[in-house]
Design goal:
The complex is a heterodimer. Chain A is 69% helix and 7% strand. By secondary structure, chain A is of the alpha+beta class. A four-stranded antiparallel beta sheet of chain A has the order 2-3-1-4. Chain A is rod-shaped and about 110 Å long. Chain B has a six-stranded mixed beta sheet with strand order 6-7-8-3-9-10, with helices on both faces. Classes of the chains: A alpha+beta, B alpha/beta. The interface between A and B is medium-sized, with 20 and 30 residues.
Chain lengths: 312, 253
Amino acid sequence: MARPAYHLRQAVHCLRQTPLASAAAAVTVALALAMSAAARLAASAVSSALQGYAAEARITVFVSPPAPGPDGPPRPRTVDEGRLLADEAARAAGPGASAEYVDPEHALRRLRAELDGAGEALAALATNPLPETLEVRLAGGELARGNLHQVREAAARLEKLPFAEEVDWGRAFVDRLEEAVRLVRGAGAALFALVLAAALFLVGNVVRLAVYARREEIEILRLVGATDTFVAAAFVLEGALQGLAGGAGAAGAYALLERLALPRIASAVGFGAQLLPPPAGAGTYLALWLAGGVIGVAASVAAVARFLRRIR
Amino acid sequence: MKDEANAARPAARSSPPPVRGSEPIIRLFHVGKMWPGDPPALCDVSLDVAKGELLFLTGASGAGKSTLLKLVFGQEAPTHGQVIVGGRSVSRLNRDGIARLRRGIGVVFQDFKLLPTRTVFDNVAVTLEVRGDPPEAIRRRVTSLLRQVGLPDKAESLPARLSGGEQQRVALARALAGDPAILLADEPTGNLDPERSEEIMEMFGAAHARGTTVIVATHDRHLLARHARRVLVLEKGRVVGDGLLDRAAASSA
């Protein structure tokens, strides 16, 4: 572009000449981007909510009963021995994990308390059927935003401990959770792509109409010796300005959606903070703004090139 | 219309008449132009126009005058034959080549072709903007041209606010802005009163005097009688006369 100041002046002049068409193009870009971003945000929120369950993940390690002694039945583990096993399990589970030894008596008391009045029935049992367990909690920080595979990996490490008879970590639940997260992310990406394609189509048509309305001007510019690049420059700048305006609008709409609407929706459906994805940083807003510019430029280039091909 | 053309018709010649410059700047070799479903707009037209020559094209409406001009500045491509301008075959030029060719040709269109949303100043300046001239040079040149065509106080007006004659003068100023080697005009006085027509023709004469090759398409008999030297007469797309006009005969016809 040999004359940026000239082309910018012409672009601004044309925007002023056709305020309604320009506003329509900018609003179309803003709506399209905001809808795309909203689709992405919704997918992210649902994904966050699902992943949030992983933060609650608790792994139960059923401990093998002590080996029988040479003199008879096995001696029950002491609490200290149980704590040593818990420490070993916590180390195996990974950094930041904690483990608690739950002896059969403790487990029975807890079950009785959980069963409330019905718990009295447990008194009728001749022996305590509950096993010794280690209750392992993974680092909340790691899982709060979901990394379900860490639950799986920790469980695999715990299964390898010599005293671990069985490890229960809700494998089926986590598998279903992971599948659900994959589906939501896929649907979000597909929706994003669909809305973006519709946006490009809409913006392209709006810009094409604007170009068509000024076909006479384009023809005259060619007739007085303007190259295609010269003709297109002002239109492309105009498209970029419209797109950037639309991108700024989309960034504003996204901020409102994320900061005002989403917390209310999360609260209304009872998910609370679990539903909320990490807050968007300046990069997201910048990306939305620039995406508007890119859409405006792409639509303008396509529209002008298509028209220029028709004239000599 | 046909009578007017006949009155100004020079004898048909087998070879081009002697011209001012020795080297042709425009050459047409057996050029034809056809659109599907229509009779030929031009048929087997061969023509040499020398550098610095003043040529009038005449003929009835539909004779092919405008088409011939369009072929010269590349708005249309010939169906047959070759159009050579400045030593280059117009039909072989790519789009940027066509643009460069047009920068050396000033054109006054029959319908003016002014940019409706731009001021008179910008309409004249656009010829220089596409060449990338410096802004200050553009300002000086455009101001000077608007003074020459008598529109110094209309610089900021939009074309729609001007009369037909004023628009014609803006179109002429735009055509002259780039100091072109070739000036083409399609019925340049069609919308003007006799006084304004004379002013416009004086400007063409001045450009011609500076060495510009000028081709004027007109069917105005009085204009031919007063200004024409070499006249090319077209009829139904064919050249039926090409030679120096006997002004006395044309004036008395």
